[in-house]
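Input (structure):
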């Protein structure tokens, strides 16, 4: 008979080893409460996924604690989606941006507070975005934002929003508009833009509230668009994204849809992960995952 366990998944290199230390402490804390916990913390993505698969097939996980950043969250959620299993998750932020933890309300919580959340409350349903067959939990960014994300991923020595600010400053000399064709719930538009982002939640890039009114449980995605501006204007508007006040800029537009298609000669990064080149087809998967979510 399978035993019900808690699975603690960590990225050993995340946070310069802090994720691994924290996952061990969480496992010990669960065991002190008389619960069974299994760690998954292999040194590569492939080994981690194999270990997670074994843990799921060997046990009956009550939940998965993901100790790391948005990339690890994306990897685990995609794996659960591909396995077609329903296991609730909670995120323990130890990554660079930690935007999913901001959405779930676990950003800044202590280990005890996170354990109280998962042991004292029921998980809640959350939507997912399906982008060319891959799951996205937060935001899929294209155009200039995707270039900034690619640059930020190369800055291994920085964490948090500072990494994305520096990446933006380094990429702004290459700023150019991109020609898009988008179809949202059957309605077509053609325009030039600096970026187009598909948002299931408010923030990316360590707290940049690109779509401040987005909710991860409303069955729709918001589409955030910045039409062409020059470099000086982008530098002027950029700081407003941390408060969400950029939405009042005359070149910023927002739409909503449950399905759509984006066509352009650019790339897409979702949850900080490289999702390849456009075109992309997307759809909202309503209530596709259970999450311990503190509002």
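Output (sequence):
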């Amino acid at each position: 008979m399978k035993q019900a366990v808690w699975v603690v998944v960590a990225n050993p290199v995340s946070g310069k080893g802090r994720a691994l230390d924290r996952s061990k402490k969480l496992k010990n804390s669960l065991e002190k409460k008389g619960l069974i916990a299994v760690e998954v913390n292999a040194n590569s993505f492939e080994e981690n996924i194999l270990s997670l698969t074994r843990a799921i097939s060997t046990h009956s996980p009550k939940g998965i604690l993901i100790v790391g950043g948005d990339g690890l969250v994306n990897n685990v959620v995609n794996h659960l989606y591909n396995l077609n299993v329903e296991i609730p998750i909670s995120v323990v932020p130890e990554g660079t941006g930690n935007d999913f933890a901001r959405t779930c309300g676990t950003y800044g919580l202590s280990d005890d507070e996170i354990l109280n959340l998962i042991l004292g409350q029921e998980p809640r349903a959350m939507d997912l975005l399906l982008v060319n067959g891959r799951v996205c939990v937060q935001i899929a960014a294209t155009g200039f934002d995707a270039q900034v994300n690619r640059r930020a991923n190369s800055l291994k020595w920085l964490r948090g929003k500072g990494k994305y600010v520096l990446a933006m400053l380094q990429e702004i000399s290459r700023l150019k508009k991109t020609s898009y064709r988008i179809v949202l719930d059957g309605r077509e538009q053609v325009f030039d833009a600096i970026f187009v982002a598909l948002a299931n939640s408010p923030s990316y890039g360590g707290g940049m509230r690109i779509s401040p009114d987005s909710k991860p449980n409303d069955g729709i995605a918001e589409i955030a668009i910045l039409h062409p501006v020059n470099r000086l204007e982008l530098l002027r508007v950029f700081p407003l994204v941390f408060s969400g006040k950029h939405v009042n800029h005359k070149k910023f537009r927002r739409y909503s849809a449950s399905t759509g298609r984006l066509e352009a000669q650019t790339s897409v990064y979702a949850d900080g992960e490289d999702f390849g080149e456009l075109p992309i087809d997307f759809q909202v998967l309503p209530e596709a995952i259970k999450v311990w979510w503190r509002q």
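Notes: The chain has a mean pLDDT of 92. The two ends are 36 Å apart (CA to CA).
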